[in-house]
Amino acid sequence: MLWQLALRNIWRNRRRTLLTLSAMVISSALLILALGIFSGMLKDMLASATEQYFGHLVISAGDYQDDRDMFANFSSSQALEEQLQREPQIRGYSKRLRSFGLLSQQRNSGPAELLGVLPDQERQVTNLHQHLVAGSYLQPGDSAGAVIGSGLARRLGAEVGDSLVFVTQAADGSIGNDLLAVRGIFSTGVHRHDNSLVLVPLGWLQQLLVLPERLHEIAVKIEDPLRAASFAARLQPQLEGQLQALDWGQMLPEMREVVASYDVSRMIIVTILYIATGLGILNTFFMSVMERTREFGVLMAIGMRPGQVRRMVLLETLSMGAISLFAGVILGVLLSLYMAYVGIDLSGTLSPITYAGGTILPRLHAVLEPANILYPALSLLLVCLLAGFLPANRAARMQPVVAIREE
Fold it and tell me: Which residues face 116 on adjacent strands?
């Protein structure tokens, strides 16, 4: 009976109920959409920092990641590679050698970072092959090809097919220099990569640096980048000699802080928006209770207990919350799906923003995550019950005789 009375009561003033429901539906839908876009920006930042260069974790010798010392290298063993291949969480790994030097094309020159890779392995870890704007990616067996950043290519005046001269210090003390042919040009929107990074064949760079069969690092990509820290800690005891496993959070501590603060930021956004929504619900039900003062007096006079009156009003708020939650979640998911598959491109008016080692791309797109739906949904029900408690408590404390005489 209480449910029937509650459902009847919420539609007694249709206009006010519809306005309140509209506010609740729109607030929950927009909150789901906003959290989805926020997750999309976070995912873009993390991907730009890890999936374009670092990988989710890196295996290297000693303190190589601190000073990039050319002599802090190691030789990859068959046992290590078999161990990486056995790990079910690993989606791919890439053996690398790194060098810094001067890259020239005709009269133009500039500093560059050369990353020696095996093309098939590097495709499994980074997505630079998806950012090509000209030419093609390195192919297996390519002996002296190069894929360079768009900013570096523009500074050198280089195009696909041009020859470049690279000069650097070799491990034996000699000056290493050789020719490279531009196979492709990439553009990621990350200035550091576009203005200095060059991908070259691993064997070519090992020969140039006089470091045969030596590596500076093995970049690894795993299923869930947010679990990279725990995976690196589990992998560390199994590594040989002085090798260490560093997750992306250790290499990019600012990015780790951004990710760590995401859940707190999400709850702050939910709280602020639903405080405003809760005040609207509170106002609606206070007005409803005041208009029905004589009705409550009659109900208690014929035997309804105060606890039942309180439950009836709370059921009214819960019913409105459930209705608005159902509609709000559907609308929010539909908007998020649209933003996930279509999105909004702002590249015409905004440029990429580099922050905490990652890049916020000039686009709006959403990522559907269960938490981005559950937080708004559960919070809306909680706000409805809290907002309904005060008017429900006021209705339950009415004296039947006084309430019946209320004009």
Answer: 97, 200
Bridge-based pairing state of the strands 175-186 and 363-364: unpaired
Domain boundaries, position 198: 63-241
Mutual orientation of helices 14-49 and 306-341 as an angle, nearest 10°? 40
* Whole-number Å distance between alpha carbons of 193 and 327: 45
DSSP notation for 2-65: HHHHHHHHHTSSHHHHHHHHHHHHHHHHHHHHHHHHHHHHHHHHHHHHIIIII-SEEEEETTHH
CB-side exposure of 182: number of CA atoms within 13 Å? 27
* 315-26-387-278 Cα dihedral, nearest 10 degrees: 180
Average pLDDT, the chain: 84
pLDDT band at 303; cut points 50, 70, 90 = confident
- What pLDDT score does 162 carry? 93
Distance CA 152, CA 159 (A): 11
The pLDDT value recorded for residue 355 is 66
Same domain, 212 and 69: yes
Give me the number of domains the chain comprises.
Answer: 2
Q: 53: burial class by Cβ within 10 Å (0-12, 13-18, 19+)?
A: buried
Residue 7 tokens read as 């459902």
The residue type found at 302 is I
Does residue 321 sit in the same domain as residue 277? yes
| Whether pLDDT at 135 is above 90 | yes
In this prediction, residue 123 carries a pLDDT of: 93
Phi, psi of 115 (to 5 degrees): -115, 110
Partners of 169 in the beta sheet?
175
Q: Is the dihedral of CA 310, 316, 320, 321 positive or negative?
A: positive
The pTM assigned to this predicted structure is: 0.74
pLDDT at 148 over 60: yes
Contacts of residue 302, defined as CB under 8 A and 6 or more positions apart, other chains included, come to none
> What's the rounded Cα separation, in Å, for the pair 84 and 68?
24
Which residue has tokens 């499994």? 124
Residues 187 and 321 in one domain: no
DSSP 193-218: HHHHEEEEEHHHHHHHTT-TT-BSEE
pLDDT of 1 > 70? The answer is no
- DSSP annotation of 236: G
The residue with greater pLDDT, 342 or 384, is 342
